[in-house]
Design goal:
Helix content is 32%, strand content 24%. By secondary structure, the chain is an alpha/beta fold. A hairpin with a 2-residue loop joins strand 3 and strand 4. Pfam families: PNP_UDP_1.
Length: 272
């Protein structure tokens, strides 16, 4: 059961470490951890030291919160996120968002690695998420006492902030970066999709598919926290020419796209 006391204790621990009123929270996805190299005067808190925080289990998610300056703003970066497929529940997955909000963030930036269902999008491209489909079979707001944290029935007519999305589109044009726009479908995983499932996702209107992000975005909306999210497309999900999954290749493609993602996020932060 989630309590206000847990969130306050986590935030108090971080404030005592030097996390001083961050303005922007950032959640980093698979293969996108190097944004933290751009943080000035970093203060690091490993998840296993923060009261009530879940622990990261995936080998390529390192599990720490990093506070510092970037683009002239105070930021707190979540390096390593939590997933349903690791055995966490929705409250675990979204707990860090609530803690960052308690610390004072006013905006949230999210990144992830995803598969391209829309075959006009290619491996290594980036996609600005303009809407999503929740296929994870639950909600981070479906628990007793959720109304202590905000309105139970949260409007999701525009879950991604149109102002930040507009700025990011303009920055991508200026930087000569291909930035598609599309719908992200979030599934449980960890298995990847069958050919029939990719056809279903396409018919549903999904442009990309992944195993994260949507719970965090739902909670950001619950907290009235403007959010912007970008997917790095690491594979092409063509059901008629489907190749076996190659996880090292997926990680490598995310890492190759990373400098463009870092440049976009850094300049976005400067503009906010």
């Amino acid at each position: 059961m989630l309590t206000r006391q847990q969130i306050e204790q986590s935030a108090e621990f971080l404030i005592n470490k030097g996390f001083d009123q961050p303005e922007i929270g950032i959640v980093l996805g698979t293969g996108l951890g190097k944004l933290v190299d751009s943080i000035e005067e970093p203060v690091v808190a490993h998840y296993n030291t923060i009261p009530s925080f879940p622990l990261a289990t995936v080998e390529f998610h390192s599990g720490k919160l990093i506070y510092g300056m970037m683009g002239g703003k105070k930021v707190v970066v979540m390096q390593g996120r939590f997933h349903l497929y690791e055995g966490y529940d929705f409250i675990d997955i979204t707990y860090p968002i609530r803690v960052m909000h308690e610390l004072g963030i006013k905006k949230l930036l999210v990144s992830n690695a995803a598969g391209a269902v829309n075959l006009k999008m290619k491996k290594g491209d980036m996609m600005l998420i303009e809407d999503h489909i929740n296929l994870q079979g639950g909600s981070p707001l479906a628990f007793k006492g959720v109304n202590q944290f905000g309105e139970r029935f949260v409007d999701m007519s525009a879950p991604y902030d149109t102002a930040m999305n507009g700025i990011l589109k303009n920055l991508a044009k200026e930087q000569g970066v291909t930035l598609h726009e599309g719908v992200y479908a979030s599934v449980v995983g960890p298995q990847l999709e069958t050919r029939a499932e990719y056809r279903m996702l396409k018919n549903m209107g999904a442009d990309a598919v992944g195993m994260s992000t949507v719970p965090e975005v739902i909670v950001a909306n619950h907290l009235s926290l403007p959010v912007c999210a970008v997917s790095v497309l690491t594979d092409e999900c063509d059901p008629d020419n489907l190749e076996p999954v190659n996880v090292p290749e997926i990680i490598a493609i995310a890492e190759k796209a990373e400098p463009r993602m870092v440049a976009l996020f850094k300049t976005l932060i400067e503009e906010l």
